[in-house]
From TrEMBL:
Keyword Lyase among record annotations: yes
This protein's GO CC annotations: cytoplasm
Full protein name: deoxyribose-phosphate aldolase
Enzyme class label: lyase
SMART domains, sorted: DeoC
BP terms from Gene Ontology: carbohydrate catabolic process; deoxyribonucleotide catabolic process
Organism per entry: Plectus sambesii
Keyword Zinc: no
Amino acid sequence: MVFGITAAAWIFSFGPQSSGGRRQFDSIAFDRQTSKAHFDDKIVKDICEGFQKHAKTLLDKRPELASLITYIDLTTLAGDDTPLRVHGLVDKALEPLDATIRGQLGTAADAVHCGAVCVYPARVADVVNRLKQHRQGNRIAIASVAAGFPSGQYRLESRLLEIQLAVQDGATEIDIVINRAAALGGDWKTVHDEVRDMKIACGPAHMKTILATGELQTNDNIYKASWASMMAGSDFIKTSTGKETVNATLPVSYVMCRAIKDFYEQTGVRVGFKPAGGIRTTEEALAFRCLIEEVLGKEWLTPKLFRIGASSLLGDIETSLRNLTKA
Ligand SMILES: O=C[C@H](O)COP(=O)(O)O
């Protein structure tokens, strides 16, 4: 445990201080929680090389590769997305493997499908319509980015409305973005309060909070943004939109997972983790899976707590599985 504060103390610090049903930001407790964490770049790099080494040992393990598919939020976030493209994405997410690979996996193949599809708000209805045409359409979640994705540079009112409309259209998971201007200015209360309001706007939908780590400049900011987002009620924290210059990396993921672990130790609340953006190969995805197992433990290796946001990873996993079939 990084901090010497018990779960009961955390509940005292953060839990009851709500006003009108809204969690209030306790800056003293936040500072106390986040001021003690330090991440040395060289040490973090060495630790991450360990995850990459571990990943290489899993490359020929068919069940490990198949389980990667269950963590994927199969994504299309393009200006030229159409209903037809989204329908194809839904079909692929539900039945990702061809007959040969399925045969090699045996009965285990039946449980192999993506965790969710992830689309822009205007395309949520296309996902809903296509899922209705599938017998097992309820097996995958419907994720939508919202809240001024990817920049977040919009008034809070419009970001909240966008979330509500996406949920109304059928989204069961909402991927929001934090206010990077507030984060870079050290205004963690604004980061927290906006995320809290967005969580309320999500209603029954799960909320994944994107930190856009490539724009947060320091590990310290990433750790603080993780804490502010979790204190505000995020179900998941997510690295990137896929639209920043630098997206998901192992070092930023390590910092975020350490924050998730510390938060769990203080509160007993398990927050999920979603690396996203630029993850294209089986080996890269396995390294994130190893990071999760080693920092957070095997109980996080479930689509309920671990997702990988990716538009082109699935094809590489299929190729890896096919090559194992030939071997
Ligand atoms: O949230 C998911 C990301 O936007 C996907 O990024 P990608 O296209 O680089 O895989």
